[in-house]
Amino acid sequence: MKRTILASILGVAAMVAATSSYGQGKINLNNYANTGNQVLYGGGANHISGTTTGAGVVNGANGSVGTINWTIGFYYALGDVTGSVASDPSGFGVPSGGGLAVATGAPADTTALGNFPGGGYFSSPGGDAVINGWTSGNITLEVVAYSGADYGSSAYRGHSAAFLMAPIASTALQAAPQTSPSPGAGMPGFSVFAVPEPSTFALAGLGAAALMAFRRKNKA
């Protein structure tokens, strides 16, 4: 009898643990209603030729670089890891640190850029993005915009700073019609840039090495 009760208790505990381990939240990847935080064209050495610095990103012909069509996606981690996300002064590096991982698998993990007036706004036609393992509280996000098949291989790309937002539980969506939260005003505006070719990075590295050697020689 005691063994039966103990087995029942362990079974319930296992079910509770499994439920909490396999939680699921959702967000809606859109920014169409927020006019304050756009995706913009950046400037400096990596400005995209034929575009206006600080203007909202739009799909279509962009000067001498030809036609660019933009996709929006995101990297995320459960909880607040903003303090350990890697710094990226370039504005176009691959998000890293804090356990950030690219979101994959859900229809709304990426969305096409919408050419709303002024550009730079996006909406999610594919539904809600799934945040696996989430049970409550904030998640850390970095929204990305890119021109190619994926962020890492794109010639033109950029990402926001890390920020926090709270998903909505899938059970809440099922219980009653509710709108999933979106990046909205929480997303810091960001810019997209032209990513240097690997050969450019190599030349820059050789130049830095030569400069260091020259300085050492002069000191000697």
Topology:
Layout: H1 2-21, E1 24-27, E2 39-41, E3 60-61, E4 67-68, E5 71-78, E6 101-102, E7 111-114, E8 121-122, E9 129-132, E10 139-146, E11 156-159, E12 163-165, E13 168-169, H2 170-175, E14 190-194, H3 198-219
Parallel strand pairs: 2-14
Antiparallel strand pairs: 1-9, 1-13, 3-4, 5-6, 5-7, 5-10, 7-8, 10-11, 10-12, 11-14
List the keywords.
24% strand, 3 helices, 14 strands, 9-stranded mixed sheet, 3-stranded antiparallel sheet, alpha+beta, 220 residues
Concise account of the structure shown:
By secondary structure, the protein is an alpha+beta fold. It has three helices and 14 strands.
What Rg, in angstroms, do the CA atoms define?
22 Å
The whole-number mean of residue pLDDT values reads 81
Q: Please estimate the helix content.
A: 10-25%
DSSP strand count: 14
Task: Choose one word for the global shape.
Answer: globular
Description:
The chain has 220 residues and is α+β, with helices and mostly antiparallel strands. It has one domain (21-212). 22% of the residues lie in helices and 24% in strands. It has helices at 2-21, 170-175, 198-219; strands at residues 24-27, 39-41, 60-61, 67-68, 71-78, 101-102, 111-114, 121-122, 129-132, 139-146, 156-159, 163-165, 168-169, 190-194. Strand 3 (60-61) and strand 4 (67-68) form a beta hairpin.
